[in-house]
Amino acid sequence: MSSDDDDIIADPLTILARALAYVIDADSQTTFEEKAKIITVFGKHVSKGDISPKALRDVTDNAFSYAHRVDIDKFVDDVKDKLTPAQKAAIVINVYDAMLVDGQVVTGERAILHKLVGAFDISISTLRGIREVLTLKNDTGLFMDSNHMYNEPSYSLELQLVGAFESDKAPVLKYDAPSSEGSS
Questions:
Q1: Domain final position from 122, 142, 171
Q2: Could you give the residue ranges of the DSSP H alpha helices within the chain?
């Protein structure tokens, strides 16, 4: 393993970039939307002056190069104990969002997500809440089709962040599933 690969332990942003590279490259056909996703995630750091445009290219190139060389199982095993719970959740959310951004979820993308969810100990109920929010966010068809399932009058989205400000405990996302008439 090169020293380039060792930096994964010290840099959570590199871990995020690599996780995104795995899912974006899962079907070996990177779409415009998927490329835009990784630029969107890191582009704000260029705009704020945290990193240079060259550093963004380097992070992106490194992430895809790493994902081509290193098996996803090794990556997940190497990083699972190196991240905070919030970093793990953010990676899962960003990976899930990248999966949905082009409107197609392929088997390889789903497998990568499940490896991360399992290794990061994300609960099924939390994953369901993430899925509901991201599906709603990415399904612009609901603006084009008045009969879309999300446009049903019975649909509602109930999310509540509990614990963030009331105590020293970590915040917990509570998700109340919509009624069966308005969910998929």
A1: 122
A2: 3-6, 12-24, 32-47, 53-69, 72-79, 85-100, 107-119, 124-138
Among residues 26, 4, 8, the alpha carbon closest in space to that of 106 is found at: 26
Q: For residue 80, what is the domain's CATH number?
A: 1.10.3680
% residues pLDDT > 70 (the chain): 81
For residues 103 and 153, state if they share a domain.
no
pLDDT tens digits, residue range 119-170? Answer: 999 998 889 889 889 988 988 889 999 999 999 999 888 877 665 555 555 5
Q: Which domain holds residue 5?
A: 1-122
CA-nearest of 106, 78, 89 to 6 is: 78
Burial of residue 148, with CB atoms counted within 10 A of its CB: 0-12 exposed, 13-18 middle, 19 or more buried: middle
pTM given for the model: 0.79
Assigned token pair, 171: 């915040």
Q: Which of 94, 122, 150 is the last residue of a domain?
A: 122
* Amino acid sitting at position 125: S
| Same domain membership, residue 114 and residue 72 | yes
- Report the run of H or E that residue 174 belongs to, with start and end: strand 172-176
